[in-house]
Amino acid sequence: MTAQKEFTLTPRRRGFHLVTEEIIRNLPPLPPAGILHLFIKHTSAGLTINENADPDVQTDMEAIFNRLVKEREPYYQHTCEGDDDMPAHAKATLSGTSLTIPITNGRLNMGTWQGIYLCEFRNRGGGRRIVATVIG
Q1: Where would you tag: which of 26, 49, 66, 75 has the fewest CB atoms within 10 A of its CB?
Q2: Is the distance from CB of 4 to CB of 133 less than 8 angstroms?
Q3: Domain count of the chain?
Q4: Domain CATH for 60
Q5: Rounded to an integer, what distance in angstroms lies between the CA atom of residue 92 and that of residue 90?
Q6: Rounded Cα–Cα distance for residues 77 and 39 (Å)
Q7: Which residue range is the domain that position 8 belongs to?
Q8: DSSP string, the chain
Q9: Strand pairing partners for 17?
Q10: Nearest CA among 42, 12, 48, 17 for reference residue 129
Q11: How far apart are CA 67 and CA 44, in angstroms?
């Protein structure tokens, strides 16, 4: 069985946002065993898996990424879309655009403290399109 669904996440402000439950609500039916592949159709946002318990992780991840990739660097050439645009592209490359998660007993098989994050790198990124492909 292979199923695919495309959906839009609720727009969020810049930052790292737990979206596990929103992703699950939008998935096609899951098989007893298989693989979920998630792909974000944007070049200025990403997906990652990280801790789902302590919200300080979200704040710290934002601070780390902002320190790694600063705005208004004099060597940026792609600047016509705002100060957050080129850094958003670089951060999306660092975080990645897809995830692969095992499905076991009809559920996502992630660790107890793992959650799916939307990494929103634009100040106003809007709704982000996700393609979910279930193979099983």
Answers
A1: 75
A2: yes
A3: 1
A4: 2.60.120.460
A5: 5
A6: 27
A7: 2-135
A8: -EEEEEEEPPP-EEEEEE-HHHHHHHSPPPPSEEEEEEEE--SSEEEEEEESS-THHHHHHHHHHHHHS-SS-TT----TT-TTHHHHHHHHHHH-SEEEEEEETTEE---TTEEEEEEEEEEE--PPEEEEEEE-
A9: 118
A10: 42
A11: 17
Residue type at 40?
A: I
- Residuewise pLDDT in 10s, the chain (136 residues): 899 999 999 999 999 999 999 999 999 999 999 999 999 999 999 999 999 999 999 999 999 999 999 999 999 999 999 999 999 999 999 999 999 999 999 999 999 999 999 999 999 999 999 999 999 9
Q: Which amino acid is it at 105?
A: N
Do the Cβ atoms of 51 and 57 come closer than 8 Å?
yes
| pTM metric for this prediction | 0.95
Find all residues with CB under 8 Å of 12, minimum gap 6, and list them: 118, 120, 125
